[in-house]
């Protein structure tokens, strides 16, 4: 199979987004250094959180992904002044001084899950919020009852403006701190409760909180700007409400408040598995190795070498010659357990293992759409009651497959890199919601992958 003429095929016709695809010629062992961007699931909460600030700030290490573009569009639509600064394309100066609106445009809210953070941020800012029920990847039922419960406990009333529509409208005369005991461990509900509570009167305690690194990141950002949040990263978070979020130097000071988004642990994990399945030797840079421990542990069990270079913010992933991947059982759980957002990618590695592995999915009820796509590449995976049985020793073959959702799409790329022959992946808009220039980054370590668009008529 001849190599793809990458340059001539990259992105022609912005209007043909839905027709774009990734084409991969598999088999190249990945080698070299690859840099991880800021975390999607952190950036999409920190950007709305800027609405709570009484001073402008600069957010750095913002990933160049479509979910972030939607967040920035919503902020601008609400009246925020958003200016890209620097030459890296990952830094924004944002002032929300002139924001007076609290309506999140319906179409934008529907495009992504994280639009729900505008509810908590707007409620915390002005006591009002209006948004459509959020969109996002099709992973089964994705209720927001815990978010609404948290808002209600803090004193917000939900006004259903039109029962036939899927609008959430919230109003609070005065948000008042209280105890919020979450019925399920939810990343989004925990972050939304923080956003709504940070300027509420009195103290809020969130029990059964999620502990993901992005929750710690949101709390660190808000604390840096003057919030009083303790316990983020544990299951009990205590928030003493403050009147202002104006940084330590206060409103009117000439200080530039700068905050970098934490590295994306899921992007890092995706590159770790890409390195492993191609039997490569890759240094994944700009990471926090501690955040990757659950992924690292399972990769080591599977026979992959992972070295944590803490001082260099790097993990080094390689596979020794003649090593057969071992079967491994995976159970997805909230952090610090094995992340559901790495489950499809890990399944690809397990299709290559020397034996049967089981996957138990405990977070999302419908996270196995990728199985039928991998079957087109000769993978053998049976769906079980709440999981999958992966039969190893597959000889993956290139095929035409679809990115059913963001992480399923990442799994297709990994499978394409490991497969014999050519793989073509459609519906890549899902992938681009969460991975910044994934084809360019992988090409930098030797992958033969191109993003192509059909010619415009
Ligand atoms: N849940 C409820 N009620 C709620 C909220 C959640 O029952 O009000 C349930 C969900 O149905 C699910 C579980 O609780 O079974 C966990 O959901 P969670 O709220 O933690 O998920 P989320 O906040 O909607 C975020 C990420 C997802 C990631 C999950 C789990 C964002 C924008 N999304 O979703 O990321 O899978 O946490 O870690 O942060 C992805 O990046 O590909 C992705 C899907």
Short précis:
The chain has 457 residues and is an alpha+beta fold. It has helices at 6-9, 40-49, 66-78, 106-111, 117-126, 145-153, 187-197, 213-224, 265-277, 293-301, 343-351, 370-375, 406-418, 429-432, 438-443, and strands at 21-25, 31-35, 57-60, 81-84, 92-95, 128-132, 157-158, 167-171, 179-181, 203-207, 228-230, 236-240, 258-260, 281-285, 305-309, 314-318, 330-331, 356-360, 380-383, 387-391, 400-402, 422-426, 448-452. It has two domains: 10-37 and 263-454, UDP-n-acetylglucosamine1-carboxyvinyl-transferase, Chain (Alpha-beta prism), CATH 3.65.10; 40-260, UDP-n-acetylglucosamine1-carboxyvinyl-transferase, Chain, CATH 3.65.10.
Salient structural properties:
single chain; 457 residues; alpha+beta; UDP-n-acetylglucosamine1-carboxyvinyl-transferase, Chain; 2 domains; 4-stranded mixed beta sheet; 30% helix; 21% strand; disordered N terminus; binds uridine-diphosphate-2(N-acetylglucosaminyl) butyric acid
Number of strands: 23
Shape: globular
Here the CATH topology of the largest domain equals UDP-n-acetylglucosamine1-carboxyvinyl-transferase, Chain
Estimated share of beta-strand residues = 15-25%
CATH superfamily of the largest domain: Enolpyruvate transferase domain
CATH architecture of the largest domain: Alpha-beta prism
Radius of gyration: 22 Å
Largest sheet: 4 strands, mixed
Which CATH C-level class of the largest domain is it? Alpha Beta
Overall number of structural domains: 2
Q: State the distance separating the first and last CA atoms.
A: 28 Å
Bound molecules: uridine-diphosphate-2(N-acetylglucosaminyl) butyric acid
Strand order, main sheet: write it out.
Answer: 21-22-1-23
Helix content: 25-40%
| Low-pLDDT windows of residues | 1-15
Provide the structure class: alpha+beta
Number of helices in the DSSP assignment:
15
Round the mean pLDDT to the nearest integer and report it.
Answer: 92
């Amino acid at each position: 199979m001849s190599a793809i003429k990458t340059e001539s095929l990259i992105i022609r016709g912005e209007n043909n987004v839905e027709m774009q695809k990734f084409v991969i010629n598999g088999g190249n062992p990945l080698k070299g250094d690859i840099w991880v961007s800021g975390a999607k699931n952190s950036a999409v909460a920190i950007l709305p959180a800027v609405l709570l600030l009484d001073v402008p700030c600069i957010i750095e290490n913002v990933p160049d992904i479509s979910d972030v573009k939607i967040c920035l569009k919503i902020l601008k639509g609400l009246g925020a002044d958003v200016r890209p600064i620097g030459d890296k394309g990952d830094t924004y100066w944002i002032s929300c001084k002139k924001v007076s609106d609290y309506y999140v445009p319906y179409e934008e809210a529907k495009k992504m899950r994280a639009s729900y953070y505008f509810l908590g941020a707007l409620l915390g800012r002005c006591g009002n919020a209006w948004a459509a029920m959020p969109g996002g990847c099709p992973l089964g039922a994705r209720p927001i009852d815990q978010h609404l419960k948290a808002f209600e406990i803090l004193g917000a009333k939900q006004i259903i403006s039109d029962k036939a529509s899927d609008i959430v409208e919230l109003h609070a005369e005065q948000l008042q701190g209280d105890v919020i005991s979450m019925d399920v461990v939810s990343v989004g509900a925990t972050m939304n409760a923080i956003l709504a509570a940070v300027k509420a009167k009195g103290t809020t305690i969130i029990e059964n909180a999620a502990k993901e690194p992005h929750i710690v990141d949101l709390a660190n950002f808000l604390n840096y700007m003057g919030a009083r949040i303790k316990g983020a990263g544990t299951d009990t978070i205590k928030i003493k409400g403050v009147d202002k979020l104006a940084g330590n130097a206060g409103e009117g000071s000439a200080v530039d408040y700068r905050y970098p988004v934490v590295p994306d642990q899921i992007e890092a994990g995706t590159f770790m598995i890409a390195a492993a399945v191609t039997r490569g030797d890759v240094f994944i840079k700009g990471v926090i190795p501690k955040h990757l421990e659950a992924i690292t542990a399972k990769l080591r069990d599977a026979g992959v070498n992972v070295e944590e270079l803490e001082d260099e913010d790097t993990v080094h992933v390689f596979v020794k010659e003649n090593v057969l991947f071992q079967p491994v059982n995976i159970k997805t759980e909230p952090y610090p357990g094995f992340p559901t957002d790495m489950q499809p990618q890990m399944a690809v590695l397990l299709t290559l293992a020397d034996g049967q592995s089981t996957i138990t999915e405990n977070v999302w009820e419908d996270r196995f759409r990728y199985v039928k796509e991998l079957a087109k590449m000769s993978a053998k995976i049976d769906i079980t009651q709440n999981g999958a049985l992966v039969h190893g020793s597959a000889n993956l073959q290139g095929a035409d497959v679809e990115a059913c959702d963001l992480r399923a799409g990442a799994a297709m790329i990994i499978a394409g890199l490991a497969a014999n022959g050519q793989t073509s992946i459609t519906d890549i808009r899902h992938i681009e919601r969460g991975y910044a220039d994934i084809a360019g980054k992988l090409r930098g370590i030797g992958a033969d992958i191109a993003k192509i668009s059909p010619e415009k008529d």
